Structures are given as C-alpha cells and as structure tokens.
C-alpha cells in the first residue's frame, strides 16, 4: 500500500498469540485484518457488513512478540452490494526504529440488511 494514510487499527500481540517458532499465529493477524476491513466496509456501507471472501493474502515477514502492529485498510473497489478492501499490516520494531510490512491482502465484504441478506450499497 503506497498511500497508507492513518492506521485503521493499532494493536500489540500478547504472549498467548505466539506459536512454537516464536512468531505470531497467522490466524491472529488475519482476525486483526478482518476487524480493520470491517471498520472501513461498515463506513462505506453505512451499516452492518459481513466478510464473504479473502481474494488474496500474502505473509511477507513474521510478526514478533514485541512488535506494535498497525493495520491500514482502504476501499479498493465497490460493486452493487459488495466492496473490496485492501489491507496492509505494518510492524513497528525496535521502539519504532524499524517498520516492516508483514502481510497484505484484499478482503471482500457485503452490506447486510436487517434480515442479514445482501443489500445495495448507498450512493457514493
């Protein structure tokens, strides 16, 4: 993501999020990405959304226990009821001395009505 802007979500992994290799579980970071993507998608939809697909996902570098994680999410494209949100995760290491892009992906969300069925997105 070249134009990161402000992070949608910022968090710190906990010792329970670590695997046998000393890195953070991929599922943990995936859930953080889904939360951040849902925040952006909910704003676009002006209401509830659901994740329906992960179009692409790349793990570029491990997340370490002392990393501060910033999750950046932005609208990439929109359809009638769904939207693609591009998400990038940056790890801040060594007390902010180093920033490493650790993962990125594109998540698809659909806007939901009161019956949890797809509904049209509001006009742009």
Automatic annotation (TrEMBL):
<dbReference type="InterPro" id="IPR029069">
    <property type="entry name" value="HotDog_dom_sf"/>
</dbReference>
<dbReference type="InterPro" id="IPR033120">
    <property type="entry name" value="HOTDOG_ACOT"/>
</dbReference>
<keyword id="KW-0378">Hydrolase</keyword>
<dbReference type="GO" id="GO:0009062">
    <property type="term" value="P:fatty acid catabolic process"/>
</dbReference>
<dbReference type="Pfam" id="PF03061">
    <property type="entry name" value="4HBT"/>
</dbReference>
<dbReference type="InterPro" id="IPR006683">
    <property type="entry name" value="Thioestr_dom"/>
</dbReference>
<dbReference type="GO" id="GO:0005829">
    <property type="term" value="C:cytosol"/>
</dbReference>
<protein>
    <submittedName>
        <fullName>Acyl-CoA thioesterase</fullName>
    </submittedName>
</protein>
<dbReference type="GO" id="GO:0006637">
    <property type="term" value="P:acyl-CoA metabolic process"/>
</dbReference>
<comment type="similarity">
    <text>Belongs to the acyl coenzyme A hydrolase family.</text>
</comment>
<dbReference type="InterPro" id="IPR040170">
    <property type="entry name" value="Cytosol_ACT"/>
</dbReference>
<feature type="domain" description="HotDog ACOT-type">
    <location>
        <begin position="3"/>
        <end position="115"/>
    </location>
</feature>
<dbReference type="GO" id="GO:0052816">
    <property type="term" value="F:long-chain fatty acyl-CoA hydrolase activity"/>
</dbReference>
């Amino acid at each position: 993501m070249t134009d990161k802007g402000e992070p949608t979500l910022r968090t710190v992994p906990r010792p329970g999020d670590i695997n046998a290799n000393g890195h953070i579980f991929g599922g943990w970071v995936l859930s953080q990405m889904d939360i951040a993507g849902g925040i952006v998608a909910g704003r676009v939809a002006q209401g509830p959304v659901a994740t329906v697909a992960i179009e692409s996902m790349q793990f570029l570098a491990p997340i370490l226990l002392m990393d501060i994680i910033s999750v950046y999410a932005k609208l990439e494209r929109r359809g009638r009821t769904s939207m693609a949100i591009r998400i990038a995760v940056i790890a801040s290491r060594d007390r902010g001395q180093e920033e490493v892009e650790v993962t990125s992906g594109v998540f698809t969300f659909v806007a939901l009505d009161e019956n949890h069925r797809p509904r049209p997105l509001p006009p742009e």
